[in-house]
């Protein structure tokens, strides 16, 4: 079997083709990350005009700060809840659409739309739905005897941002799960059906194991999403309140650095957040990937 290879007559041309992406990565990823690491070891004035080296002082203070540890615990709860909800609903919708023959494309198009919504808009949408005075969902909860008020109740506020963040990510999970379901060989499912296996047993014994690569990929993506891409949702709905009940790590970086002008501590928090995500990713590849069946 012949393998086609691209040969560049000019040895400089491959580097020129890679140069735009390398420049963008350097300017918008590598350089800011390096600046954050540098600032985490310094104490700067609010205007960034002077800085003094303080070593690991910011990290020591953070690890002994009850507010930071509480934010870390809230982030863990938030990440687990959003990942579980978004992946579960994405899989359920993918299974439902996969059963459709004629109208599958229409439902796919409709279910993809929420992913195009900006995080701030998604947060505002659910903020209006759960508004304690004019929200439709808050009204129905009131009819059930639940007085909803995410402005005063920290648990309600956390539930609100979890629902908003999960709803925003369901479409992304749905697309990948649907693609994975459509790649499952029908011959295996038909053979299991002939052997007398019911739909539920076929799903858990055949379909779900074959979806393990997709599930593993989405698990990593969703964890990174909850850690980094949910800032707009929190800022638009609760702004970290009430009483810091929804002040997760990514929002605390902004709150302490931009609003509190504590640039050194904010930089240290961003470095710790990056290290947490890196450690979680390594753990997932080291232990979770063992259960993946390729």
Automatic annotation (TrEMBL):
Pfam families per record: BPD_transp_1
Any single biological process term in GO: transmembrane transport
Regions crossing the membrane: 12-31, 76-98, 110-129, 157-181, 202-221, 268-288
Keyword annotations of the record: Cell inner membrane, Cell membrane, Membrane, Transmembrane, Transmembrane helix, Transport
Subcellular location as annotated: Cell inner membrane; Cell membrane
Membrane topology: Multi-pass membrane protein
GO cellular component, one term: plasma membrane
Principal location listed in the UniProt entry: membrane
The UniProt record lists the keyword Membrane: yes
Family that this chain belongs to: Belongs to the binding-protein-dependent transport system permease family.
NCBIfam families recorded: PRK10561.1
Subunit and interaction comment: The complex is composed of two ATP-binding proteins (UgpC), two transmembrane proteins (UgpA and UgpE) and a solute-binding protein (UgpB).
Described function: Part of the ABC transporter complex UgpBAEC involved in sn-glycerol-3-phosphate (G3P) import. Probably responsible for the translocation of the substrate across the membrane.
Name recorded for this polypeptide: sn-glycerol-3-phosphate transport system permease protein UgpA
Organism (species): Sinorhizobium mexicanum
Gene name per UniProt: ugpA
